[in-house]
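Subject — a protein and its fold
Fields — amino acid sequence, structure tokens
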Amino acid sequence: MKRYYVFLVSILLLALLIIWIGPQQMWDVIKTANPWLILLAVGIHLFVVWIRSLRWGYIINQPWEFKKNFIVKTIGLFAGNFSPMRTAGEVLNAVAGKKINGITLSEGLSAGLTERFFDGVIVAVLLILCAFLLPKVRLIAIMGVLASLGLLVVIYLINWREDTSLWIYHRIHSILRFLPISEEVVENFYLKFTEGLRSMIEYTKTFSSFKNLLVVFLFTAVSWLLECVRLYVVFVAFNVEINFVAIIIIFLLANIIGIVSALPGGIGSIELSLTGLFVLFGISSALGGSIALVDRLASFWVVTALGIIFCSYYAQDILEEIKEYTLGLKSSKKD
């Protein structure tokens, strides 16, 4: 029931944004946008997803499986869009990867966490550069850098350090014992999860050569910069001139706020933060809010629509895999 309240908060935030600006005023602004440039922004975002699917394929050693990788990555992005802090993205990515790419769940989780780690690296690097180039938001940028570095430390400890990741899970496992779950299920989960953690970290270490990590870094940098280009194209569609450095820092900060808000996909919080940051750079609230909503339509909601299509086709297989790893734990001792 709690998740419905969270979605309600997101919807309320979007409603507040539209009411604050005025629905008619916002629609009047949106009608002035160049539709061909909006379509270009959609195309750029789909290309970003393709770049991220190339990154996924490279990590799991299936770089030429373009169709499979694109489907798996879209499913993962879709799942992340509707989970707090996008936490379900890596899990569904791994499950879809097992069914579609034929990899192990551990490899999929390792690849997902590696992707998330380098996303954090790029965000931190870009924010540091922008903090020097744009004094107006230096303090906010530094706070974003600190948040990114904190996330990097956590992912590193889980994905590269077996002793630390097992220590973290042991703390969680001690809490599971107090939940209304049978002891057999808890113990089976412990065996399966710790074994999975060790396999995941082993795969991460075998992949972590300088060459491999450099390639992943480059894929990640290109994808983030192209997302900023997409937002810049949306600005051009509304015939608004803005410094590209400002675009980078606004986009990154809005995404960090969306993650910290813990709302599914940052719905509501990202739109509000984008609008507020646009206003900070001298753009009117009506224009800023319209740009924010159109950009999210060209990115978030387009991927969501594709994710629904792909998930509806693979739903049964993915659901069976989840059942096998969770509900099936109780019978794993008998097998």
